[in-house]
Each structure stands twice: as C-alpha cells, then as structure tokens.
Design goal:
- The protein is an alpha+beta fold and about 160 residues long.
- The protein has five helices and six strands, in the order αβββααβααββ.
- The chain has a four-stranded mixed sheet with strand order 3-5-6-4, with helices on both faces.
- The radius of gyration is 17 Å and the shape is globular.
- The N terminus is likely disordered.
Length: about 160
C-alpha cells in the first residue's frame, strides 16, 4: 500500500512539474510573441521557445549552487560561467544565456523583475535563442536559454 501511495505521489509530482513548465513557457512565449520595450530599446516579437530538460537541469544546478554558497553572480564560486554550466549537462550549444534573480516569491514576480531590467528583458526577447529551462531553489531563480549546435548529418557519396 505504501508503495502505491509513493508511486501515486511521484506521478502527481511529475504532472505538476510538467504543468509548471508549460505555464512558465507559455508566459515567456506570450511576452516574446507580443514584442516589448527593454529599457530604451523596442524589441520586436520573437519566435516561441521550447522547453529543454538539459537547460532546466543546468538552471537547477546553478540555483542550488547560489543557495548553498550565498552568492548572487553570473560567475560561480570557482569562476565558471554560463558556458561551463551548460557544457556540464551535455548541451551542445551554439548560443547560451542566463537570467538570475533572488527573493521573488513566485514565477510572476521573477518574470516581472526580469522584464524591468533592460539586460534581462533583452535576453528573454533574444530572437536567436530557441530553447529554455528554468529552476528555483529557495529564493534563487535561474533561467537558462540556448540555441543548440546544428546536428552534423553524414554526407552520402
């Protein structure tokens, strides 16, 4: 009976996570599809993003790091940057970016604060990125963006 309850709770947890991912992605894509002003610069509408589990994992790893170290920086305690973090999860990237936030109570507040910051807003609106992942640990929010390297297809002779 306990195993059944555990499996049921695990399934519910995964379903809630998938719903959260879909909600977050929808919120970001609504902003991108509308276009907006980032500081003094108007950003045209940008294509929709897709959720990427590796980007979510790198965001979660970094949110954990920020919480554990008490840092708030785009550079980890050992000097690693966004490229290093993305490489560590095996994401073969052409372009990456990162937004971080601290202290927001929910995703609405985190996105609102990012949109009020010209550099964070510009990252959200970057038309070159195609995928994202986002995570929260405690009061630390991390959003990772990427554009994967094109796959190399074998040339037939």
């Amino acid at each position: 009976m306990r195993l059944s309850i555990f499996l049921f709770m695990l399934c519910i947890s995964q379903l809630l996570t998938a719903q959260s991912e879909a909600k977050i992605l929808s919120m970001i894509n609504e902003i991108r599809e509308s276009g907006c002003r980032c500081g003094n610069k108007y950003m045209n509408a940008a294509p929709s993003l897709h959720w990427n589990d590796k980007l979510e994992r790198s965001a979660k790893n970094y949110a954990n790091h920020l919480k554990q170290t008490g840092r708030f920086s785009h550079y980890s305690a050992d000097g690693k940057d966004i490229g290093d973090r993305i490489d560590a999860v095996g994401y073969n990237w052409m372009l990456v970016g990162e937004n971080i936030a601290e202290g927001q109570k929910n995703i609405d507040e985190a996105i609102e604060d990012w949109m009020e910051s010209p550099s964070h807003c510009t990252m959200i609106m970057n038309p070159e990125v195609t995928e994202m992942g986002l995570a929260r640990t405690g009061s630390h929010w991390v959003q990772h963006f990427g554009k994967p390297m094109p796959s190399q297809k074998a040339i037939k002779k």
